[in-house]
Amino acid sequence: MSTTNPSPQPKSDDIHWMPLGMAVLLAVVVVIVNVIAWFLSWVGLAAGAEWLLWLFSWGLILMALLFGIGMGIAAWAELKEKSVGKLLIILFGSGSILGIAWYERSHYLSRHSTEQPLVADNSSARTVPAPVRGPKEESAISTANARVAEFEKKRAALDPLLEKALADRDDLVAKLRDAGIKTAADLKGNAQGQKLAASLQRISAEIEGLERQQAALDYAIVEAKSVVRRLEREQAGISEEEMRKLAEQLRDVEERTDGVGSLPLTPFDVDAALEKALAAPPRPTKTATGKKPTAVTAMTLVGTWTEADPLPYTKPGMLTFTKGGSALLTRFGVTGPPATYTLNNSELKITAEGRTESFSVDFVSEREVVIVNSGGGRGGVVAGRWKRVE
After folding, report:
1. What's the rounded Cα separation, in Å, for the pair 5 and 80?
2. Which of 214-228, 234-248, 309-323, 343-357 has the highest mean pLDDT?
């Protein structure tokens, strides 16, 4: 009698966990697909592809259902074996996965439904009203305007002082000439001439100080006005960083101008001051009506000029010519050494630190000049196109 070996029966645990294993395998595939879809959507490579949104959102639900089916079969098997602990763990895990999947799908759909299309529809376009300027912006503009008025007031107060100093210097020069002083060598043994020369030295230092104050204030006025124009162009308000920069800029301008008159002036050598004063042509006298006669040359360099073609991302240079024959150049925020100039028709000569450069001046208009160095090209410290500061 032959005996037949019965085929091995699968264990109860194998039957219970086989559906769960298949569900886990399918869920892993769904997770990989959804991760790829999420990445493509995130980097914007599939913008506008509705199938990608559908695949991602419903893939989450499919993953949860596969987990739920597998865990449900396992839970039913465990229920028959009265394993309450395993049952609670399986039910809790299945419910958690389903809840997380539904939440992620809802969050993804709500986030993408509120995003604006990449291309606007002109048919439904609306005009966005310009933001209204707030109290902070109005206060900043008022502060900047007040500072401009303060600088202009200081600048105007210097004009009569400079005019009086120039007149006193002309008077001293006339007295020196009457005393027979034509060069510094004539001062030897001439007590009166030496006294007049010492007074001329003091008045020349005073004139230089006033002219430097004027140049500094002219530059400060231009900077402050540029701040006002920038603030007025602002449409969306000013951030705290902008307010801090404004305060620093105004404080820097004030530090460079306030107390300039109390700074120690460069002492003039008596001989140098005398030679310069005697070489200068006499100033025109005023008429009886108080008006100055018309100059022979219709155009004049006296005043402050700003660079018309500055380098990118740099502040325009400032060039100041005074009535007393002094010149001051500021470029890249650095003020150059004191200089003197002479203008004969269109020939301009500037001397600074013992070096003299010659230029040709082309008056385009009363408010614009082109300065070219005499050697050709546009070299030199002041060569370029300049516009008068109003």
Report:
1. 29
2. 343-357
The one-letter code for the residue type at 9 is Q
User: Terminus-to-terminus CA distance in the chain, angstroms?
Assistant: 128
Domain boundaries, the chain: 12-116, 132-284, 296-390
What is the 8-class DSSP label of residue 10?
P
Q: Which pTM value belongs to this model? A: 0.34
Between CA 55 and CA 39 the distance in angstroms is: 13
**pLDDT confidence band for 298 (50 / 70 / 90):** very low
CA 281, 283, 289: angle at the middle one, nearest 5?
160
Contact assessment for residue 312 and residue 299, using Cβ atoms and an 8 Å cutoff: no
Amino acid at 386: W
Which amino acid type is present at position 22? M
Summarize pLDDT for 174-188 with one digit per residue, the tens. 888 888 887 777 778
Q: Give CA–CA dist 71/82, Å, rounded.
A: 16
Class of domain 296-390: mainly beta
How far is it, in rounded angstroms, from Cα 257 to Cα 236? 32
**Secondary structure of 27-41 in the HEC alphabet?**
HHHHHHHHHHHHHHH
Q: Which residues of 185-208 are buried (b: 16+ CB within 10 A; e: fewer)?
A: ebbeeeeebeebbebbbebbbbbb
